[in-house]
UniProtKB/TrEMBL annotation:
Cellular component terms (Gene Ontology): cytosol
Name of the protein this chain belongs to: Nicotinate phosphoribosyltransferase
EC annotation from Swiss-Prot or TrEMBL: 6.3.4.21
Domain Nicotinate/nicotinamide phosphoribosyltransferase: 156-322
Enzyme class (EC, first level): ligase
GO BP terms: NAD+ biosynthetic process via the salvage pathway
Function (record text): Catalyzes the first step in the biosynthesis of NAD from nicotinic acid, the ATP-dependent synthesis of beta-nicotinate D-ribonucleotide from nicotinate and 5-phospho-D-ribose 1-phosphate.
Signal sequence extent: none
Reaction equations catalysed: 5-phospho-alpha-D-ribose 1-diphosphate + nicotinate + ATP + H2O = nicotinate beta-D-ribonucleotide + ADP + phosphate + diphosphate
Amino acid sequence: MTTSPLLTDLYQLTMAAGYWKCGKAEQEAVFHLFFRKLPFSSGYAIAAGLGDVVKWLQGFRFSTAELEYLATLPGRDGKPLFDRGFLDYLGTLEWRCDVDAIPEGTVVFPHEPLLRIRGPLVQAQLAETALLNMINFQTLIATKSARVCLAAQGEQVLEFGLRRAQGPEGAVMASRAAFIGGCSATSNVLAGMTHGIPVRGTHAHSWVMSFETELEAFDAYAEALPNNCVFLVDTYDTLEGVRHAVEVGKRLRARGHELNGVRLDSGDLAWLSIEARRILDEGGFPNAFIVASNDLDENLIESLKHQGAKISVWGVGTQMVTGGAQPALGGVYKLGAIRNEAGEWEPKIKLSENAVKVSNPGIQQVRRFILNGEFRGDAIYDEEHGCAEPVEIMHPTDPTRSKVIEAGSSHEDLLQPVFKGGKLVAALPTLPQIQDRCRQQLTHLHATVKRLQHPHAYPAGVERTLHERKLQLIQKAKS
């Protein structure tokens, strides 16, 4: 992945030039990265992308070539857009901000800051676009993966989306995020090498079509790769293909190997899998698994299981790595506070006629409350003021809705230190550890929050005293 600071929108650099010109570049500020709406009409999302954020921030510096490129950019009058003194200043920059983040694999909800950036205004501003790029996409895909894996009810889900992914880097990020959400393997070999994800795959229809007969093709494949025999059986006639797989499987077994399974890639997957299971069992291969592919998603998998499909491995491609009908998460990055000349933190708020777009002010933290092993609610609060007891959560956009946290609940604060003064202070978990965290997190959510259709709304909102200060800032701004 690229670590260039030019992975940004031009307006980040023009604002940075403005901050430098008016003496605000080193003013301390706090930004929060969050999303406003859950993807896929889901009841939750899965935080992902922090690992790549860390790599990008560790490489945050402008090279000579990058500065020379910026020097060529023209303003509207044809003269250089950027002052040479500003470009020299950029050449001295190294990352010096604090970063607090919700760990990858955590279940998260709208308006909760996934990242909190605190440090010099110009640096925090320059990080915005790249951080949104990495967190938005991977959180979207990890959430999709978690939904698909829940629909599969513990059966293996393989990510098969490389050829449909959004470019090479997007494909690797998608494989990483899909693994976090619960996929057991990927077809993407580069993702396997880069991130240590198990890789899976056998052959395509072209293999079968390159031989005179399907039986000859299966025999040749079994001879070449006897320890990887999952035959794609729908090139000509699916059930006849299963019978050919059984025939070749018997010859494999005689040589000390085993038929691993068959793959269905078209047709009525429910009916074909039931018939394929019968043929495999009668042929002496009750342990051979049936893989299904063909534009699957969580809703189709749930439907196939309701129909009694005998599928035990699910290959999900396009819908997994692109997000399907929802191509983006829609995360944003907003200023929450700035330190004034008196050295005090001054909360900042963005107003909008659309209530969902009014930002939360202050230096935010997310406190999660737990009772009897179940997540019971999340409160966004201001670290400068804390949570008032008893804790009352106000709905982010509807002030008539609130929830008081039950007595006896334990709690944890979700934002954890990652960088201090630009130095990495966190021991980053391995990808399998992140996947395990995701799995464990989902066990603490009530089943109604996890259902695919019309999930119950998990109580996540703004702590009451922060909500009151927010209303005061709104009134002050309007007056």
